[in-house]
Design goal:
Pfam families: Abhydrolase_2
Structural class: alpha/beta
Distance between the termini: 45 Å
Strand order of the largest sheet: 1-3-2-4-5-6-7
CATH topology: Rossmann fold
Order of helices and strands: EEHEHHEHEHEHEH
Protein name: Alpha/beta fold hydrolase
GO molecular function: hydrolase activity
Number of strands: 7
Family: Belongs to the AB hydrolase superfamily. AB hydrolase 2 family.
Strand content: 15-25%
CATH architecture: 3-Layer(aba) Sandwich
Keywords: Hydrolase
CATH superfamily: Alpha/Beta hydrolase fold, catalytic domain
Number of helices: 7
Largest sheet: 7 strands, mixed
Shape: globular
Length: 233
């Protein structure tokens, strides 16, 4: 699961608007979860505010056979039986930090080449949520906000965490009470870390598994609408 080129492929990105209609508009980038691709979260576009230009990117790695789709970082080191998880679980904390950081760095490299949007927000699911938050930590000034659905914050310290804590950008964190994919230790770490570093909002959805519900989508839309109002001021 270590390709020779771990950069994002600019030819497989799905955009909600053609190039001529993107100038000057805020950009919302969608980062999918493990075993998926750019088509997955793009299905959310009709439920999101259409003032955003939306881009859905494909993670650069290929999971081990027989898993299909793509991945942002390896999860091979985790003993899934220990957390009762199916494939798609987060990497173990001691293995995941470098992989999540490398994935976020590759994403930022793609972003630098892909757009000059005046404002950029992130929406990631599971692995994509972890990468979104890691990108926010790497470049706190670059991103207006982040939405983390069924994801987590990677443990460990990064050089600009204090700067992020000073800026406190808005972050929405949604997860379900029946999500058995993200280990409880990472949920606990995220619950402690996020309020100290970002302006946190979100909900825990009763009965929701490792997925996105209509109720959660409605909350995300409200969050994004508020972000548009702030960017317009």
């Amino acid at each position: 699961m270590t390709p020779s080129d771990a950069s994002l492929d600019p030819d497989v990105v799905r955009w909600s608007a053609p190039p001529a209609e993107r100038a000057g508009r805020p950009l919302l980038v969608l980062l999918h979860g493990y075993g998926s691709d750019e088509n997955d979260l793009f299905g959310l576009v009709p439920y999101l505010p259409d003032d955003f230009v939306t881009a859905s990117v494909r993670a650069p790695l290929t999971p081990p056979w027989p898993m299909m789709g793509n991945a942002w970082y390896a999860i091979d080191a985790m003993n899934l039986d220990d957390v009762g998880a199916r494939p798609g679980a987060a990497a173990a904390p001691d293995e995941g930090m470098g992989g999540v950081t490398a994935a976020a760095s590759a994403f930022i490299e793609w972003l630098d080449a892909a757009t000059d949007a005046p404002h950029v927000g992130l929406l990631g699911f599971s692995q994509g949520g972890a990468v979104s938050l890691q990108a926010l930590r790497l470049q706190p000034e670059r991103f207006a906000f982040a939405v983390n659905l069924s994801g987590y914050v990677s443990p460990g310290e990064l050089p600009r965490d204090a700067e992020l804590a000073a800026r406190k950008p808005p972050v929405f964190w949604g997860r379900g009470t029946r999500d058995d994919v993200i280990p409880p230790s990472l949920v606990e770490h995220s619950a402690e870390w996020l309020p100290a570093h970002v302006d946190l909002s979100g909900r825990v959805y009763p009965g929701l598994t490792h997925s996105v519900s209509e109720e959660e989508l409605a909350d995300v839309r409200t969050f994004l609408t508020h972000r548009l109002d702030e960017l317009a001021d």
